[in-house]
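Q: Given only this backbone (288 positions), what sequence would you predict?
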């Protein structure tokens, strides 16, 4: 890919419409071999970019879903204790008595279970998605520093395993907390906004070809208004797509108020938000 505009074209062929800023950030991450940290509200297309890049590059997508309590054994590697024990029992049954040799065999690479970070380092090519890094504990970010700095993982029993070809790395954050500066310094950064009205219409028409222009425009206008309202969780493009698909499944060619209210669960996922919308009569949705 020789330019950000060319990358944007290739992403568009996969039904991912990136604006100039995002296309440039992704292009630089690929060209410079740097991780890309994407922040923004949930549902704006952060995870989907990683999936689309994997498709473009013909590489497997290796996903590490972050959560509170995530530790090294779940992210890096773990030893297969059951297989190690079976190996020892088989060796003893065969009359093996050399303890040093048995210990060396037990900590052979074949007994090492590669978790997402190690799997990404050993797979060429690969796209590594570290999803919702802000949900992991702050201490977990220290684990990522060696991986993202040197694309290497130290296994005391085996030594350091380095990537022959570093994976493409995309980190996402919904900014439920601040990511540490040490991790940010290792990444290129881009903030994803909700799409403009025109871009959201284009996304709906591209991802849902059977959607009429009228319905796409009315849905984009309605969700745009909802994002300006005082909601617990404003809808992202993922929810807009779900809502449009639900409306189409109900036979809508335009934003019929009754169908809009009936299918609101595809767009809003909090009871309080339903009450706010139905109680205030937002455009396209009737007042309850």
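A: Predicted residues:
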């Amino acid at each position: 890919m020789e330019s950000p505009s060319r990358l944007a074209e290739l992403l568009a062929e996969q039904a991912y419409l990136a604006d100039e800023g995002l296309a440039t950030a992704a292009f630089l991450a690929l060209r410079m071999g740097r991780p890309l940290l994407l922040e923004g509200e949930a549902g704006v297309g952060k995870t989907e970019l990683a999936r689309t890049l994997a498709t473009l590059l013909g590489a497997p997508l290796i996903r590490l879903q972050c959560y509170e309590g995530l530790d090294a054994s779940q992210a890096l590697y773990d030893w297969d204790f059951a297989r190690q024990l079976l190996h020892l029992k088989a060796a003893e049954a065969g009359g093996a008595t050399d303890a040093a040799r048995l210990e060396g065999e037990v900590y052979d690479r074949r007994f090492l279970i590669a978790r997402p970070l190690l799997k990404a380092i050993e797979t060429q090519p690969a796209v590594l998605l570290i999803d919702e890094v802000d949900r992991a504990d702050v201490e977990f970010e220290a684990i990522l520093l060696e991986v993202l700095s040197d694309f290497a993982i130290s296994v005391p029993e085996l030594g350091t395993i380095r990537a022959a070809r570093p994976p493409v790395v995309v980190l996402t954050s919904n900014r439920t907390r601040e990511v540490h500066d040490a991790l940010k310094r290792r990444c290129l950064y881009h903030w994803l906004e909700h799409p403009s009205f025109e871009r959201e219409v284009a996304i709906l028409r591209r991802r849902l070809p059977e959607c009429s222009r009228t319905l796409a425009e009315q849905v984009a206008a309605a969700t745009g208004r909802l994002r300006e309202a005082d909601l617990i969780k404003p809808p992202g493009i993922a929810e807009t797509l779900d809502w449009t698909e639900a409306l189409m499944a109900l036979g809508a060619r335009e934003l019929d108020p009754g169908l809009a209210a009936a299918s609101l669960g595809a767009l809003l996922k909090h009871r309080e938000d339903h009450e706010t919308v139905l109680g205030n009569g937002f455009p396209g949705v009737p007042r309850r």
